């Protein structure tokens, strides 16, 4: 017989939450401070280029990208952005 998740879950729950009927005090409505979804999509202007890199460098980024479930091109782009940002500040 297979247990439902609820049956199995109760076995592992340490204690149940008990709520009391107590006054909550003065409530205050706060202003919605989250930006709308269209402002969460951060698009930067990119320029497509052609670049030749060492096979070992590309292999390294591909391996690391696979480990972290991301794009190796995105990782290389980020490294270049960090490099440029660092030296732009000190110039």
Give the total of beta strands: 0
Give the N-to-C terminal Cα separation. Answer: 70 Å
Q: Which descriptor suits the 3D outline?
A: elongated
Radius of gyration: 26 Å
Biggest β-sheet description: none
How many helices? 4
Report helical residue fraction: 40-55%
Low-confidence stretches: none
Mean pLDDT: 83
The helix/strand series, from N terminus to C terminus, equals: HHHH
Strand content: under 5%
Q: What is the structural class?
A: mainly alpha
Provide tags for this entry:
91 residues; 4 helices; mainly alpha
Topology:
Blueprint: H1 5-12, H2 37-40, H3 55-67, H4 72-90
Helix pairs in contact: 3-4
Explain this structure.
The protein is mainly α. It has a domain at 54-91. The chain is built from four helices and no strands. The protein has helices at 5-12, 37-40, 55-67, 72-90. α3 crosses α4 (72-90). The longest helix has 19 residues, at 72-90. It is elongated, with a radius of gyration of 26 Å.
Brief summary of the model shown:
With 91 residues, the protein is mostly helical. 48% of the residues lie in helices and 0% in strands.
């Amino acid at each position: 017989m297979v247990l439902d998740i609820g049956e199995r879950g109760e076995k592992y729950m340490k204690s149940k939450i008990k709520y009391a009927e107590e006054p909550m005090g003065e409530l205050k409505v706060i202003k919605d401070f989250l930006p709308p979804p269209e402002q969460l999509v951060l698009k930067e202007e990119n320029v497509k280029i052609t670049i030749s890199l060492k096979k070992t460098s590309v292999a390294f980024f591909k391996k690391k990208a696979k480990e972290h479930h991301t794009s190796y091109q995105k990782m290389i782009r980020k490294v270049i952005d960090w490099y440029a940002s660092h030296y732009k500040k000190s110039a």
